[in-house]
Amino acid sequence: MFKSIKFLLKCVYKYNKIYILYALIYQFTTAITPLIAIIMPKFIIDELMEKQSITTLLLYLVIFLLSILCANLCSTYLQGKMFVSKMIVYYKFQIDLTSNIADSDLQKLESADYLDTKTKAERFLYANGSGFGLIESAFNIL
């Protein structure tokens, strides 16, 4: 499995390096949203119970709402950019694959070993439409 993910990372790096950056930043923004939702209410509750300063309370509320809003906006924006980048990688991969098949020996294209390897590769690469999307899942695991 890790060999396959390593292959996908090489392909993505070769065809569109920015996709990896988008995926990493996307993981960070989606991970920070729950942290904000856990940490900021503590400050708000402490302000309500102890000091009861309205200006500080409003400041905490504004910080909380704006940080959640910014994190969600960044996540949504990056999700769109990742989709476009993933389609660019897929398109360039298809062009490369087609040119390699066109240049290969026709007898090899009909051999049983080649067809078996091709079937295995297609199952992994295309994975019901989410093949190159496995990069995002790999970053989720990490």
Report on the structure:
By secondary structure, this protein is an all-alpha fold. The protein is built from six helices and no strands. It has helices at 2-15, 18-51, 54-103, 106-109, 112-126, 134-141. The model has no long low-confidence stretch (mean pLDDT 81).
Helix-strand layout with pairing:
Blueprint: H1 2-15, H2 18-51, H3 54-103, H4 106-109, H5 112-126, H6 134-141
Helix pairs in contact: 2-3, 2-6
- Count of individual beta strands: 0
Radius of gyration, CA atoms, in whole angstroms: 23 Å
Oligomerization category of the chains in this entry = single chain
- Mean pLDDT over the full residue set: 81
Defining key terms:
single chain, mainly alpha, 6 helices
Quick recap:
By secondary structure, the protein is mostly helical. It contains six helices and no strands. The mean pLDDT is 81.
